[in-house]
């Protein structure tokens, strides 16, 4: 059994390439290769906004390796300290079991961001009580049987034995988890009529033709590529990704995993996860992890997955930045725009969680690259 400790003193270096994130990547790789049990202790408030794309890329590599270890069958148990926000909350939901401290708070967005999104004061006692009731340890224990809260009466040895028990068919276990989160947002699963989607970027990407529909920001369909029909799946739209939208995306991906197509094109045009208290009440982190798990299941069955970052022209980024965005475990980034790689800036671990599965992202055309671009692409 291997043990990894990520604590608050490492907060500033957790997601950086030379910090704890980089140390965990090879540990996850070893666990995947040996299928050895791993206990992960997390106490992290996530990366600072000032750390920017470097932190985001480092986390994508970390999450990708952690997900690969779970798909490979490595048992993972997670013990939580006081803080578990952002990417740390996603790592926590890779584990089969989570042990909360009595004072643990777990969410994709911390209380201050949730308050800002709700138009409230983070120091307001009423809002703090509401947030604690939603993201505190007691609430999380009620949402899932995989969550427990430590107490002096807890038999820790028994908890570890159950948490680290070898899983028969880890892919099937991940798929079973997909059905569980739906119960949390069933009231919000409202029927919506899909609509045909036409975009200039898709015209350039698939000149041989495509058929795509969009429903609640989730895109499904198919395109003709070199005479072959290739399925399409993606997230588009200006609104952040909430629990329902993430579940719909994962549902489509899990259905594709049954077919196990030779190739899948994944489209991304989404800024971030939703910093809403309603989404945190149903544990948004688990829904975001479900997206990545579904794509990982596809890749494990031999499907080649390619990522394309779409451009709606709302933000303009230099080509080098696009390469950085796509860097977390990917081989560069395909973008259908003109030289200069205009595109929307994708921020937040949640918006790109699903892109951490074994995906190949096609790079910019050679003639569009600058010397800086080439230095960024591994």
Strand order of the largest sheet: 7-8-9-10-11-12-13
Low-confidence blocks of residues: 8-18, 312-333, 337-347, 360-378
Identify the CATH architecture of the largest domain: Alpha-Beta Complex
Mean pLDDT across residues:
78
CATH topology of the largest domain: 2-enoyl-CoA Hydratase, Chain A, domain 1
Structure class: alpha/beta
Largest sheet report: 7 strands, mixed
State the helix count: 14
Helix content: 25-40%
Q: Over the alpha carbons, how many angstroms does the gyration radius reach? A: 20 Å
Number of strands: 13
Any overview of this molecule?
The protein has two domains: 166 residues, 2-enoyl-CoA Hydratase, Chain A, domain 1 (Alpha-Beta Complex), CATH 3.90.226.10; 182 residues, 2-enoyl-CoA Hydratase, Chain A, domain 1, CATH 3.90.226. The longest helix is centred in the N-terminal third of the chain and has 21 residues. With 378 residues, the chain is an alpha/beta fold. It has 14 helices and 13 strands. The radius of gyration is 20 Å and the shape is globular. The chain starts with a strand and ends with a helix. A seven-stranded mixed sheet has the order 7-8-9-10-11-12-13. α5 packs parallel to α6 and α10 packs parallel to α12. Helices cover 40% and strands 19% of the residues. α1 links the parallel β1 and β2.
């Amino acid at each position: 059994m291997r043990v990894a400790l990520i604590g608050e003193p490492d907060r500033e270096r957790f997601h950086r390439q030379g910090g704890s994130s980089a140390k965990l990547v090879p540990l996850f790789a070893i666990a995947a290769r040996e299928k050895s049990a791993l206990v992960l202790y997390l106490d992290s408030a996530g990366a600072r906004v000032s750390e920017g794309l470097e932190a985001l890329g480092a986390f994508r590599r970390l999450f990708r390796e952690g997900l690969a270890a779970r798909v490979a069958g490595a048992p993972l148990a997670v013990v939580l300290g006081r803080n578990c926000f952002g990417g740390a909350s996603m790592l926590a939901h890779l584990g089969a079991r989570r042990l909360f401290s009595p004072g643990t708070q777990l969410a994709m967005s911390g209380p201050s961001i949730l308050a800002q999104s709700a138009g409230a004061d983070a120091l307001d006692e009423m809002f703090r009580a509401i947030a604690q009731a939603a993201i505190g340890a007691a609430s999380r224990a009620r949402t899932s049987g995989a969550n427990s809260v430590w107490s002096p009466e807890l038999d820790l040895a028994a908890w570890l034995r159950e948490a680290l028990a070898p899983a028969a068919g880890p892919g099937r276990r991940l798929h079973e988890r997909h059905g569980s989160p739906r119960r949390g947002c069933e009231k919000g699963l409202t029927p919506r009529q899909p609509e045909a989607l036409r975009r200039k970027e898709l015209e350039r990407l698939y000149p041989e033709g495509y058929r795509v529909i969009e429903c609640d920001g989730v895109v499904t369909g198919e395109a003709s590529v070199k005479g072959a029909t290739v399925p399409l799946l993606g997230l588009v739209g200006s609104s952040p990704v909430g629990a329902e939208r993430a579940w719909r995306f994962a549902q489509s991906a899990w259905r594709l995993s049954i077919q196990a197509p030779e190739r899948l094109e994944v489209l991304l045009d989404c800024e971030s996860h939703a910093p809403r208290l309603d989404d945190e009440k149903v544990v948004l982190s688990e829904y975001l992890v479900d997206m990545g798990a579904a794509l990982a299941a596809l890749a494990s069955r031999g499907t080649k997955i390619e990522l394309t970052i779409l451009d709606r022209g709302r933000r303009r980024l230099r080509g080098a930045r696009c390469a950085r965005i796509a860097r977390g475990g990917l081989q560069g980034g395909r973008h259908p725009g003109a030289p200069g790689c205009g595109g929307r800036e994708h921020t937040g671990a949640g918006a790109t969680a699903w892109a951490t599965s074994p995906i190949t992202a096609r790079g910019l055309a050679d003639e569009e690259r600058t010397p800086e671009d080439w230095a960024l692409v591994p």
